Amino acid sequence: MQAVWITRIVISWIAWDLTGSSTYVGLLSFFLFLPYITTIPFFGVLLDRIEPLKTAILAQFIQGLAAFSIFLLHVFGILSIFSLCIISLIIGTANSAQGSARQTIVPRIVDKPTIANAVAFNAMNFQVARIIGPGIGGILIGLIGTQYTILISSFFFIPALVTLSLIKLAPKQSEPKTKDTNFMGELVDGAKFAYRNVIILECIILTFIASIIIRGCHELLPALADGKFNMGSEGLGNIMAAAGVGALISAFLIASRKKTYNDNGIPLIAKISLIIGLLSVTILGQADTWNMALFAAFISGACVTNVAIDMQSTVQMQLTDSYRARVASLWLATAIGGNAVGSILNGIFSDIYGISNTFFYVGIIGIILVIFTQTALIMNNKSYKI
User: Fold this and answer.
1) Which residues contact 333 (CB under 8 A, 6 or more apart)?
2) Is residue 163 part of a domain?
3) How far is Cα 99 from Cα 199, in angstroms, rounded to an integer?
4) Is residue 334 one of the residues assigned to a domain?
5) Which has the closest alpha carbon to 324: 204, 190, 192?
6) What is the model's pLDDT at position 127?
7) What Cα–Cα distance (Å) separates residue 58 from each residue in 2, 69, 139?
8) Which residue among 74, 121, 254, 348 has the highest number of C-beta atoms inside a 10 angstrom radius?
9) Residue 267: left if φ>0, alpha if ψ -120 to 50, beta else—which one?
10) Where are the strands (E) in the chain, listed by range?
11) Which of 52, 276, 251 is nearest to 170 (CA)?
């Protein structure tokens, strides 16, 4: 996962270095995350039919090869925005397959009484890596440049190929699918299950708000660090590291809980964290000092990590193996796909209205959306006690 996120921050930095445009930075992030919207639901249906380990291994190999191809294009001086877009799509597609597989693999490694803990730790690994990885990437870019950072990142994919091959899965606790089962029918059935389950529905809605706004703004931190504060790649590493420290603290606090999920639905702390995280985005936009920006990044990293881990754990505990890959993939499509939408929209708005104004107003809009969502669910009797 560190390799995945280091690769992504290198791609974002190269886009900024080549163009100086927030729109292009957002565009590359859009191509990285687009497959989570377009392909991951189908991978979810497929992985409810087949064993996921081979899929995860192949996806990991493709990502490592794609990262190495960026290094080669860099060496020969033919790296361009167009080639980065193509490679980003390849990486995004492979990672969406791997994400679906991961959602299925983890609950089948441990005994049922410890599924909640395993899911929480897996979610922490993913969410913390997406903060720490870019921080490491930003520091490496400042020390050795993008060319050798992406080379190191491509080798970071190798250990997972070894560990994945050693995993043994418990037998699937569900009826096997017949060859006559309709593929699209299964996809629709999984979506209906998610919609009818009140807890999962609320998780998906709130996750999308957090993803499109908080995560979408995080994708533009290269433009904020250099475009607003003129801090260069070193500043990018610092602000990503600040968000990473927040993520680590949040993950540690979650791991120290006696209970990793709420039987009655989304933990209240997750909803509070979402509001605070959105407020931190507005502060990040209005920060007029570098230290204030670092503090806002720290808070937003902590809050969005808490939201993502609690939401993922809550969704997983609502599922059986019969629906796990399909429904968990829908949640993941929302979580990561929101980055695609948020990064491109926030990038365009930043070029038009300025990055400070964009961060401020999208944060306020996010808070309004959370309040509206909670009110609508209560009025329609589709919520539980908040």
Assistant:
1) 36, 37, 40, 41, 96
2) yes
3) 22
4) yes
5) 190
6) 65
7) 18, 17, 29
8) 254
9) beta
10) none
11) 52
The two tokens of residue 137 are 């990437």
User: Residues in the chain with pLDDT < 70?
Assistant: 48, 112-113, 115-116, 119-120, 123, 127, 130-131, 173-183, 255, 258-264, 321, 381-386
- CB neighbours of residue 103 within 10 Å: 30
Both tokens of 71, joined, read: 């290094």
Report the candidate in 233, 247, 14 with the shortest Cα–Cα distance to residue 129.
247
- The parent domain of residue 196 ranges over 2-167+182-379
Closest CA to 201 of 374, 23, 352, 15: 374
Between the CA atoms of 64, 67, 73 and 79, what dihedral angle is there, to the nearest 10 degrees? 160
DSSP string, 6-60: HHHHHHHHHHHHHH--HHHHHHHHHHHHHHHHHTHHHHHHHHTTS-SHHHHHHHH
Structural domain includes residue 39: yes
Compute CA distances 227 → 50, 73, 81, 147, 233, whole Å: 47, 26, 19, 22, 11
User: Tokens standing for 281?
Assistant: 């985005």
Asked if 301 contacts 245 with a C-beta cutoff of 8 angstroms, the reply is: yes
Structure tokens belonging to residue 188: 């629709």
Contact 63, 157 (CB under 8 A): yes
Q: What is the pLDDT of residue 61?
A: 92
Burial of residue 89 (CB within 10 Å: 0-12, 13-18, 19+) is middle
Amino acid type, 339:
N
Domain count, the chain: 1
List the CATH number of the domain containing 276. Answer: 1.20.1250.20
173 in any annotated domain: no
